[in-house]
Amino acid sequence: MIFQPVLLPASTVPKIKTLLFFCILCPVFFLILSGCGGSAPQPASGDPIPVVEATVLGIAQDAGYPQADCQKACCRPAWVNPANRRKVSCLAISDRQAGKAWLLDATPDFPEQLQFIRDSLGLELGGILLTHAHIGHYTGLMYLGREVMGAKGMPVYVMPRMDTFLQKNGPWSQLVALGNIELRPMQDGQSLALSPNLSVTPFRVPHRDEFSETVGFSIKGPNQRLMFLPDIDKWGRWEVSVDSMVKAHDLAFLDATFYSGAELPGRDLSVIPHPFVQESLQRFAPLPDSVRRRIHFIHFNHSNPLLQPGSAAQREVEQAGFGISREGAKFEL
Q1: Which of 73, 158, 230, 242 has the most other CB atoms within 10 Å of its CB?
Q2: pTM of the full structure
């Protein structure tokens, strides 16, 4: 069969061009416009943003890094270059469906950590959960008072002795009296719902409990469980097996205040006991690789070489299969 070309009248050519324009280009416009709707933003990778996640907001011990009045080699890099400074140990637990994030501890770096929740996470602060009454873990509450934020009924979750401490001692009692904070009780081993997607269970641990008891937190999200334990005396003083606790969680942020007993010469570390990182490495070495990878060390004293990028201590920990907490790191729950 031989096809013959068809000659169209000149008057029909513009109409055909218009038709071809709409047939070819309109689908392209539709695809472009369809991406401009009200759906939640997606990361560049195309993976959905996790609904529930944990974000590391600080990794240092109570005094931060650098530490006040420390002129030694450990702190000089941070005094000279602000980029080397680290905030006090803290996690944010966020639920995007609820539009809120909760702080694990109220640190002296509360202003920056709160601003991170608002600017970087795009969420509001839903409350604060306190582990104990040492300065790096609750003194950030001062920013909620009338001299600063003048907060109204900020939920602060506390254990019984912590509750009494805040109510009976100024200036914290003023926060309660003025309604800046609303104390919400927690009990050892009892689960507490923060949102439909998030629950927390406090658990008692041995520590220097001068003013309050000390707890860690077990956080349960839709997909994973996280353990937050920034302060404890020694693993052997806890009647609970820390190995079993790590195995029961998908992520475990553990006390790593001191790397070894030699880093503070002249100090009696027996009066401020913590598990040395070297002790923890030895204790957890028999665990399977998959379990060791769940452990992320946190709460580093200014003298701890894990704060120094590229140090031999960092290499030792990472080669042994453990994690070193880093500010800004996020973990889906």
Answers
A1: 230
A2: 0.85
